[in-house]
Each structure stands twice: as C-alpha cells, then as structure tokens.
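Please check this:
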Amino acid sequence: MYEDFIEMVSVYTEPVLLLEGKRKVPGDIAAKMANLTAKLAIDTDSIFRSGNAPGTDRAFMSEVRKLVPHRCEYIIPFLGHYPNSIPDESAVHYPDELSPDEILDIKYHINAACPERSLLIKNYRQGYHNTGNVKSLYFIRNTMKVMGAASLSLDIPQYAIMYDDRDKPMEGGTGFTIKMCRYLNIMVILQNDWLYW
C-alpha cells in the first residue's frame, strides 16, 4: 500500500529513490509512473535518481523534473547523453567523474553479484566511449546508480521502484540493476506492487 511505503520512506531525511526499468512501457503504465512519482514528490522529501533512458526512466521522471528539479539526480553513461531531457537545476553525474578506486570497487561488486558480466567489465576503460567499451560503460553506470559514490556525495538508494518485463523478467540492464540492488540489500519494488498504490 502507498501509505505503508510513505511511512517507510518518512524515517529517512531526503531518501534516495532509484527509478528505472525497461525502455518499452505501455502508455497507460507510463502515466501511472508519472502520477506515482508526482505524489511522492509532494508527500516526501525524496531524491529521485534516474538513468535518463527513454521509456521507464523518462516516464518516472516526467512530472518530478517539473515539480522538484532540484531533487532529481541523473546518472548518465557520459556527459552529453540526452541533455535536453535534464533540467538545469538537476544534478548530473557519470562514471568518468569517479576515482580509480571507486571504479575498482564497482568492478568488484559486479563480479560478486553478477559473475556472468566479469569478462565484459574486466575490459572497461574509464574515459573511453567507443563501440568496444560502451556496453561495459552502461553496466558501470547502472552499478553507480545503485552504489552511489562518496566522492560525488551520491548516497546509496534506500529503495528502487522499477518496471520489469513480465514476459522476459530479469534480462538486460534492468535485470542486472535488480540483481545489484538485491545484492546490496536495497528493497526493490516492482510493478506488481506499485501499480496498485
């Protein structure tokens, strides 16, 4: 229930809510995403974190970016990634800002949580955005969204509100991010719950 979630969130000061999911999202569900986060922006002092991808990310952020742009955080793969959808007042961060130690820490946690991604992540080179590096860059960015970064004053999220594909669950970047959240003991709330709030 929505009221129960508000009660859980209210114990934190400026809790971070990670909002994310599949790129393909039906219009009626996208509208519910926008309504839900607009209510959360009014009822809580939450920080809303997104990857700024088309689909779910944009739907969740579509209203909060207007209501509370100063409480929106965008963790993007590289500077200049879809800049027109990010308000000027919002925080923007990307993996090139991380320290070498933070990158090593991210790689360690990816290897622990998702060993099937180990080879891909092993070859990641910070600062390179070419074709050979871009897939690993997205996994590094997804993990940065989940882990936060001390050097950038990015806290770890308290909750992740996500939309996954019911027919093909736990696949791609969304499945990876759900695994990372669960590995780090971040509560993941999927559409089976929040659609009925």
Summary: The longest strand covers residues 16-21. The mean pLDDT is 94. Residues 27-43 form the longest helix (17 residues). Strands lie at 16-21, 47-50, 72-75, 91-93, 159-163, 187-189.
